[in-house]
Amino acid sequence: MLIRALSAIAGAMLLAGAARADQQRDPELKTVVQKAIVQAECFTDHYDSAVWYTLMEPRLRRIVKEKDERLAILKEVYCETHRAGETRLPPGLVMGVMEIESRFDRWAVSSSAAVGLMQVMPFWPEQLGMRRYELVHIAPNIRMGCAILRFYLNYEHHDVRKALARYNGSIGRRDYPDKVINAWTRWNGADDLGFPPLKAGAPPPPR
Which of 23, 50, 141, 160 has a CB 3.0–4.6 Å from the CB of 169, allowing a cystine? Predict the structure, then answer.
């Protein structure tokens, strides 16, 4: 399976050409993604994490049949969207991105050479001192994907549609953001877990 995936990555890179050439290539992103990889610890509230698993596991079970893989995806999404001191990242939005990008297939490779659950571009491992095959691993792929998505949400002042278009390399088009936002509605119900009530005058979480 790994050999097949790596062969697909190589083939897709040859076919990609100039398609979505600017996808995930913003210069400031390297520091952001590096930080996400280094700070991989996860500290969760037991009640909130229990609610998260209870709500999401039955939904994901219909798509990801292997139990350990399913639970690993949910754990990593919960951890990466609840990073202390970072901008709120709705877990349901991340699930929506994965549904549209890869249908939760960690072996997926796109025509523009993006790889894995969150379709991370293959130049990232090389820039971060990692191996390219790590893109098909659940934890590093979700860490990098969430860091990139959070960066674009901040860049676009929490405009979810614009951030999604940047993530996908489809700026100026609505088809991809619309698909993800529609998918987001199927993964709702736990987006406010782990976040304290907003203070008066504070900006709302990205929706």
Answer: 23
